[in-house]
Amino acid sequence: MQIKNQYKLTDWLPTTAKEVKRRGWDELDIILFSGDAYIDHPSFGPAVVGRIFESFGLRIAIVPQPNVRDNLQDFTKLGRPRLFFAVTAGSMDSMVSNYTASKKPRQKDAYSPGGEWGYRPDYASIVYTQILKKFFPDIPVLIGGIEASLRRVTHYDYWSDRLRPSILADSGADLLVYGMGEQPLFEIIKLLERGVPFSSLKTVKQTAYLLKKDEKLPKNKNWEDIWIHAHERCLRDKKAFAQNFKTLEIESNMMTAKRRILQNIGNKTLVINPAFPAMTEHEIDVAFDLPFTRMPHPKYRKRGPIPAYEMIKHSINIHRGCFGGCSFCTISAHQGKFIASRSKKSIVKELEQIVNQEDFKGYISDIGGPSANMYKMKGKDLSICEKCKAPSCINPVVCSNLDTSHKDLLDIYQTVDQHPKVKKAFVGSGIRYDLTVPTFNKKADPEELEAYLEQLVTRHTSGRLKVAPEHTSDRVLKMMRKPSFKYFHDFKKIYDRILRKNQLKQQLVPYFISSHPESDMEDMANLAAETKKMGFQLEQVQDFTPTPMTVATVAYYSGYHPYTLKPVKVVKDRKSKLEQWKFFFWYKPENRRWIKEKLQQLKRPDLIKILLEKKDNKSVLSKKRYVKNKKPKNKLQKRKK
């Protein structure tokens, strides 16, 4: 069966018994169950895991989006694996994928063919594992991915509005790999191939498992043990739950983790082994250089495009990790605080693969990462980083030991930009705007920062530059671990200056969050007024969604800040959350009366005047004003040639 780019069906990992036979295999070593459609691309975790197993010469098959509503034949059709079953909910937590912030079912699933919803069950990792344990009770099950990773310990589940124990307890899985899985998976496979039984995999870094209370803890002379409050204590005492999070976050963000975390859950003990250090350049290159087809499995051709794939198929992920430490974000909990960057050679190799794809039209959709402008950033003196316990390297100020040079990133941009087959290379990922502002990033070279921003704005922006100030209240921003809004004003001045210099008409798109812990109605009214005065008519907004393993979620549930244990103001009822969100849309006629009444209650007539009076119709989001100037565009095209 020949398809585009001369690929054969056997170039993908097998997904059915027929495809297994086509390879001449009569037994599988590992069978991987995933909540995503199978997209053989380095941006999708299940594909990376599958290719890692394959790189050891193992016979691996993937069962994507198994049906849990029929006779469950998808779970038995490939038989029993020699080593173990692997389970992942996919590239998203299944509850985030299936429900909105208001807990309403979503209508689309970006990781399914045709964007169709309904192929991923709620709590997918638990559902898949329980089914496998029912049919194959003697075969080990290893779980991983973002859902398992962020639910590895007692956590607040927003959708059921309760504390849940480690996903190991609910699922019955034998072992959990947390974080980015390449390093622990390499170690696990090496041990299994040496003949070590799966049940003896107790000292692999970055894994977690349950022990019976009467079982002895495996010894490791290089690790210390630290106990956190038992699950049952957390159920009774919200402050104890909050205290646990501080320990978890500190240990997750250590450069060289040495402490094993222990927690009692009923008659068992949860054991969380220390994490691996951030991947080296060579290690991350190996993962990205695996033999991906970079395409969805051919089985989906008649079912419509997969939205997540369409978005990233011509993009390049250049690094992992984020040292921002934002209170509402799960990136550091899953990918780590320290940046793991790919080599320029590996990035260029992927670029060549993209430009030679049949459907490539000359446009790279993204050169980015979790925060697009953290590539190659690290501590100047790593011995200082090894002792650091801070959750953020740039909050409340930029660490004096952090090298924030954009020089290497600028070189990557320019290299991609100069490729003869590339018409335009965009940076679609959000950037940390504060790192480009000299008044905030005080030890950086201002000229270098401006050079980076000018390259970004003039060559890699599609007319809309996305940044995330998140709020305007300094009190809320402190809770968020974000810089004061005054630095966004400074950034906008630099941005506007670059537009004037290059005769461009482009749009700055700021992201904001409502109902975040510490945010109240008056804060949102001030946000609306301040952004209106700056000329913004907000579109990119969201209501705070509590997801496991974040400071903000712990504060939302417990009412305490996990570091200070001081009370935190939170909004929980749907009506109040909706009211905060409404302030984003002051310009909608249906909201005007409500806003006026609410501001009268708050005794803020000054804000009524700012938000509701009609001086003129000008807005920075005016379509006419922000149609890109054709002459400068042509000038830039000529400059490139």
Q: How many distinct helices?
A: 24
Strand order of the largest sheet: 3-1-4-5-8-9-12-11-10
Annotation, overall tally of beta strands: 24
**Mean pLDDT metric:** 93
> Percent of residues in helical segments?
25-40%
Largest sheet: 9 strands, mixed
- The CATH topology of the largest domain turns out to be Rossmann fold
Architecture overview:
By secondary structure, the protein is of the alpha/beta class. The protein folds into three domains: 4-209, Response regulator (Rossmann fold, 3-Layer(aba) Sandwich), CATH 3.40.50; 314-462, Transcription Regulator spoIIAA, CATH 3.30.750; 516-641, no CATH class. It contains 24 helices and 24 strands. A nine-stranded mixed sheet has the order 3-1-4-5-8-9-12-11-10, sandwiched between helices. α2 runs parallel beside α7 and α16 (446-459) crosses α18. The chain is globular, with a radius of gyration of 25 Å.
What layout of secondary structure does this protein have?
Blueprint: H1 17-22, E1 30-34, E2 39-40, H2 45-55, E3 60-64, E4 84-88, H3 94-98, H4 124-135, E5 141-144, H5 146-150, E6 155-157, E7 162-164, H6 167-171, E8 175-177, H7 182-193, E9 207-212, E10 224-227, H8 231-236, H9 238-252, E11 259-265, E12 268-272, H10 281-288, E13 295-296, H11 307-312, E14 315-317, E15 319-320, H12 331-335, E16 340-341, H13 344-355, E17 363-364, E18 366-368, E19 378-379, H14 382-387, E20 402-403, H15 407-417, E21 424-425, H16 446-459, E22 464-470, H17 474-480, H18 486-501, E23 507-514, H19 521-533, E24 541-543, H20 551-558, H21 574-582, H22 589-601, H23 605-612, H24 630-640
Helix pairs in contact: 2-7, 9-20, 15-16, 16-18, 22-23
